[in-house]
């Protein structure tokens, strides 16, 4: 936007604190290269436009805002003479994107001294070479510091996740090892039983019947129903009585295995009707080994599948071999993070209240996983501070043109006197050594600055909710990490 150009008076420019130490010659150059413009109430420049000018307010009222999702959020309002904003990084040249990092408007007729960005850059380097050098160091140093802080926070989270993942992988791996050892023993006994049967007075037809029963028993194991403890106990008693009645020793030991495999007295009656009475004890022992080997192979399959799922979750969480920015199903990210954190979550009950109808969102998935990690970790810590039990509810829903991801915990809540500080860097309520105070600050930067979303909190005792709102369709360009404010 352009305003009405009015005469530039060096004496008036000299009254602005930014220029009060300049010589008459320097003030004259400023007026020659710059101009004074008068703007009526309304916009002056828009966020994202090329940063062409530095604006120094002579008189009036200025408001700066940042775009958050579809909304413009006011970040500063002032009537102080001499405040400046706009192309404040022109002296850095093409080393940084030269665009306006906020939007400016005035609420009343306002005059600015307007200096073209190129002139501002030349004057900075010519008049204040040491200051320009120091500012460059501060700017790029702060960028490096922010990256280092973010990297340290990610490493701390990764260390915690690695410990949890190791624990989670160890359980199914140990189960698979135990099942493999037991399977080797059972197969050995089965070979011995087969040798005994082969040496017995069994006809070819009887052996064929026995092999058929074995195959059909294995099929039943694969389709075994899940019984309640009461149902399983009743069926064990029935099978034990049947086995005892048919002269099969140690029926009480065999019965639980048969129940787990889905076998019942009707099936055993079928077996008894198929084989001769003298073969029945041997046939039942043979079938017991068959059932045990099938169950052990199922256990090995379950354990290795669990390991595979954990590895897939780790890959999904870390976003290895994935594009850094893409359209993603947020539920996949949430599930992988919850699985990675399952060791830390412990006894906390997790409720997934997902709206699966919401569309995928454009995002940086690895960084969103970092947000989920921070918010889940905080929720679990809050719940743990009031006892080991509690509930974490993760909810997704569509709110207009944005996706809501909400983390609700039943912890003690956030006291009102510190609620406004929780997103400040280095602020933490965790004991020394347990928190950096950077998790929520980094989460806010990722959600707001990088995704043009919003992160907010509502809290009461027993009901604290962190709400992330992400645009559903808008492209998300890389944005500066810090909002620019007039100084």
Give me a quick take on this structure.
The protein has 487 residues and is of the alpha+beta class. The protein contains 13 helices and 16 strands.
Structure, described:
- The structure is a single chain.
- This protein is α+β, with helices and mostly antiparallel strands.
- The protein is 49% helix and 19% strand.
- The protein is built from 13 helices and 16 strands.
- The strands form 4 sheets. It has a 5-stranded antiparallel sheet with strand order 1-2-9-4-7.
- Strand 15 and strand 16 form a beta hairpin.
- The radius of gyration is 36 Å and the shape is rod-shaped.
- It starts with a strand and ends in a 16-residue tail after the last strand.
Set out the fold topology.
Layout: E1 4-6, H1 10-14, H2 24-33, E2 35-39, E3 42-45, E4 53-59, E5 62-68, E6 71-78, E7 84-86, E8 103-106, E9 110-116, H3 117-127, H4 129-199, H5 204-222, H6 229-245, H7 251-260, H8 265-274, H9 280-318, E10 326-328, H10 330-340, H11 342-345, E11 349-353, E12 361-363, H12 365-384, E13 391-399, E14 402-409, H13 439-450, E15 454-460, E16 463-471
């Amino acid at each position: 936007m352009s305003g009405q150009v009015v005469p530039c008076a060096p004496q008036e420019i000299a009254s602005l604190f930014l220029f009060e130490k300049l010589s008459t010659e320097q003030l004259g150059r400023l007026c020659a290269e710059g101009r004074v413009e008068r703007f009526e109430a309304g916009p002056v420049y828009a966020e994202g436009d090329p940063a062409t000018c530095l604006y120094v307010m002579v008189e009036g009222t200025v408001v700066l805002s940042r775009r958050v999702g579809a909304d413009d959020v006011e970040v500063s309002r002032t009537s102080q003479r001499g405040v400046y904003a706009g192309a404040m990084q022109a002296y850095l040249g093409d080393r940084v994107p030269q665009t306006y990092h906020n939007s400016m408007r005035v609420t009343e007729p306002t005059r600015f001294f307007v200096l073209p960005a190129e002139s501002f850059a030349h004057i900075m380097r010519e008049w204040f070479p040491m200051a320009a050098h120091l500012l460059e160091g501060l700017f790029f140093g702060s960028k490096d510091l922010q990256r280092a802080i973010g990297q340290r926070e990610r490493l701390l989270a990764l260390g915690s996740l690695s410990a949890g993942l190791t624990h989670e992988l160890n359980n199914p791996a140990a189960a698979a090892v135990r099942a493999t050892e037991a399977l080797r023993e059972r197969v050995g006994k089965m070979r011995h039983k087969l040798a005994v049967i082969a040496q017995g007075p069994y006809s070819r037809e009887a052996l064929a019947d026995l092999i058929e029963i074995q195959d059909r028993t294995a099929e039943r194991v694969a389709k075994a129903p899940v019984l309640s403890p009461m149902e399983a106990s009743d069926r064990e008693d029935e099978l034990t009585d049947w086995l005892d009645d048919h002269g099969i020793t140690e029926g009480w030991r065999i019965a639980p295995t048969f129940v787990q495999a889905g076998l019942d007295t009707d099936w055993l009656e079928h077996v008894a009707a198929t084989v001769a009475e003298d073969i029945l004890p041997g046939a039942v022992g043979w079938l017991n080994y068959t059932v045990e080997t099938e169950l052990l192979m199922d256990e090995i399959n379950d354990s290795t599948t669990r390991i595979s799922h954990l590895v897939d979750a780790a890959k999904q969480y870390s976003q290895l071999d994935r594009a850094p920015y893409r359209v993603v199903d947020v539920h996949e990210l949430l599930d992988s993070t919850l699985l990675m954190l399952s060791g830390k979550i412990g006894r906390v009950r997790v409720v997934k209240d997902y709206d699966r109808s919401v569309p995928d969102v454009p995002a940086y998935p690895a960084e969103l996983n970092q947000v989920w990690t921070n918010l889940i970790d905080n929720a679990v810590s809050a719940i743990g501070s009031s006892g080991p039990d509690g509930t974490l509810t993760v909810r997704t829903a569509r709110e207009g043109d944005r996706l809501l991801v909400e983390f609700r915990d039943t912890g003690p809540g956030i006291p009102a006197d510190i609620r406004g500080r929780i997103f400040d860097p280095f602020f933490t309520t965790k004991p020394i050594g347990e928190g950096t105070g950077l998790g929520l600050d980094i989460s806010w930067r990722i959600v707001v600055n990088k995704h043009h979303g919003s992160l907010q909190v509502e809290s009461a005792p027993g009901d604290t909710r962190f709400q992330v709102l992400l645009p559903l369709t808008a492209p998300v360009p890389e944005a500066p990490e810090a909002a620019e404010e007039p100084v």
